[in-house]
Amino acid sequence: MGKLVYSAITSLDGYVVDADGSFDWAAPDDEVHRYINAMERPIGTYLYGRRIYEVMTYWETAPTTGESAGHEYAAIWKSAAKVVYSSTLDAPTTARTRLERTFEADAVRQLTAESDADVSIGGRGLAAHALHAGLVHEVHQFVTPVVVGGGTHWLPSGLRLDLELLNEHRFASGVVHLHYRAG
To answer: What is the mean pLDDT of residues 20-36?
Structure first.
């Protein structure tokens, strides 16, 4: 049985994008990126909302040969299956990707239960559905030392979620990783 994992790189004030829709401040340095790669390696399936999927399609054509953390991540991303939830996307543009028109909690619960690997959910809107449905097993937050003052918050309004801190890690850049069990 896999776990459903929600991870986000956020500002100190809890946003994944700022009020202008930018997330350039969230680009991880090499140390953080390699740490994220180690976390992502066991992921068997990525669940994405349309917007985050469109951002992540970059990795479909990113080079996988070389020594950089980006090269390593491109290989990790390409090896995983992907499910995109969208009512507006015509068709997926990446390999190993299927399209679902609506999020169905029971289907995600079954996918996770039947998976030999962990399942990652990405995109604040899609993750909100899973969080409200009680499907998320683990939460990872990478807190970036920047305050952006507004934008898209990484957690949905009206959510009550008791968390158990499993691990924390500080990076030289000031980024802090918080790893929680949901439950």
So the answer is: 97
